[in-house]
Amino acid sequence: xxxxxxxxxxxxxxxxxxxxxxxxxxxxxxxxxxxxxxxxxxxxxxxxxxxxxxxxxxxxxxxxxxxxxxxxxxxxxxxxxxxxxxxxxxxxxxxxxxxxxxxxxxxxxxxxxxxxxxxxxxxxxxxxxxxxxxxxxxxxxxx
Length: 143
What we know:
The protein folds into 2 domains: about 1-75; about 80-140, Nuclear Transport Factor 2, Chain: A. About 25% of the residues lie in helices and about 45% in strands. The chain contains 3 helices and 8 strands. The longest helix is centred in the first third of the chain and has 12 residues, at about 1-15. The radius of gyration is 16 Å and the shape is elongated.
């Protein structure tokens, strides 16, 4: 599933450690429960730097990232590419019109952005689109 690919790349942006830590800290769990009351199918992953909850809420796949103090530092929401803002869709079409959009997520953290996976027969790209519409290639993979 491509969503796991984007999520893994986002985890890298948090400076993850190669060594996993135990999911600990009641503050993470209590903070999560108070912020995402209707979350279902919650799974937890933890590293030395953060704890991640992957879950379903309101018919959407989401992830929440917490620092070691139990504070929410970011969340991602899988969205339908049709739900991207019109200006962003136009910008992607202008620069990558021959590519197919395969996935889109909304990242809300220190720097809010959209991440959109596009691909053609030769390469796959993950595009990062900032709030102001600035688009850059976050990750490129040649097929």
